[in-house]
Amino acid sequence: MHATPHTRPAAVAGMFYPGSATALAREVRQMLADSAAPAATRGRHVKAIIAPHAGYIYSGPIAASVYAPLAEGGADIRRVVLLGPTHRVAVNGLALPAASAFATPLGIVAVDQAAVAAVAHLPQVVVSDAAHAAEHSLEVQLPFLQTVLGDFGLLPLAVGRASPEQVAEVLECLWGGDETLFVISSDLSHYLPYAAARATDDETARHIVALDAHIDHQQACGATPVNGLLLAARRHGLQAQLIDLRNSGDTAGDRSRVVGYGAFTFSEEASSAQ
């Protein structure tokens, strides 16, 4: 039984991104405007994306590159299934919040209760407000989603100890049609020197584009949900595309120890493709 429904407040506003609604809206819109959607993404329905989750000064432009196509082609999307790794609270399985909505400075996003009901029977799905309370990997995606999609329902899942197959099973329960978008929140390599990070992240990107679900946690902090998506994408015949691949040494950081960021889309192949 759940307690009285409540809203999860923004935990990292003013740290990972601006705490003022006006400043946040301006920054997100500017990053989206600066990010031209690749021609190859136009005219395709994007079913899933992978986006990074650091502070916007570091990874915001890379995230914007994968959200920009949604501003053009995301009109049908009504439900976002958002998965990211837990950084602060250990959890077995995939954790739903008890909260009925999530807040950011841009407003409130309702948790999709029909989507909750669709996965609540799975043994790997648990409820943990603690796993969500201070978790940034999901929260930092919300202002982008609020800006490019407007009104949508959210199913937020904080992924802890689980197998890629368990993640893929959850995705299958929620696959739906054009109304459902999957967002996987993950950074890539952590704290390598710049050149080593570039080489490592290039190799990781090749595996992701090939839908090779053998990414490890040194390659991506969100390896478990990434691998789960790759399994599901392969089963559904999706095609992955690398949109942007940079690191904190390219954006706002020192090059001696960097964090890698990748942006990917997953779409059905163009109708002319064989």
Task: Please report which band the strand proportion falls in: under 5%, 5-15%, 15-25%, 25-35%, 35-45% or over 45%.
Answer: 15-25%
What radius of gyration results from the CA coordinates? Answer: 17 Å
The coarse silhouette is globular
Q: What's the assembly state of these chains?
A: single chain
| Mean pLDDT across all amino acids | 93
Helix content: 25-40%
State the end-to-end CA separation. 50 Å
What class do helices, strands and sheet pairing give? alpha/beta
Report the total helices: 10
- Helix-strand string: EHEHEEEEHEHHHEHEEHHEHE
Tell me how many strands there are: 12
Question: Which helices and strands, and how do they pair?
Answer:
Blueprint: E1 7-8, H1 21-34, E2 46-51, H2 56-73, E3 79-85, E4 94-96, E5 101-104, E6 107-110, H3 113-119, E7 125-127, H4 129-133, H5 136-139, H6 142-149, E8 153-159, H7 164-173, E9 180-185, E10 190-192, H8 194-209, H9 223-235, E11 238-247, H10 248-251, E12 258-268
Parallel strand pairs: 1-5, 2-9, 3-8, 3-9, 4-7
Antiparallel strand pairs: 2-12, 4-8, 5-6, 10-12, 11-12
Description:
This protein has helices spanning 21-34, 56-73, 113-119, 129-133, 136-139, 142-149, 164-173, 194-209, 223-235, 248-251, and strands spanning 7-8, 46-51, 79-85, 94-96, 101-104, 107-110, 125-127, 153-159, 180-185, 190-192, 238-247, 258-268. It is an alpha/beta fold and 274 residues long. Strands 2, 3, 4, 7, 8, 9, 10, 11 and 12 form a 9-stranded mixed β-sheet that branches. A 3-stranded mixed β-sheet has the order 1-5-6. A hairpin with a 2-residue loop joins strand 5 (101-104) and strand 6 (107-110). Helix 1 crosses helix 2, helix 2 packs parallel to helix 6 (142-149) and helix 7 (164-173) packs across helix 9. The protein starts with 6 loop residues before the first strand and ends in a 6-residue tail after the last strand.
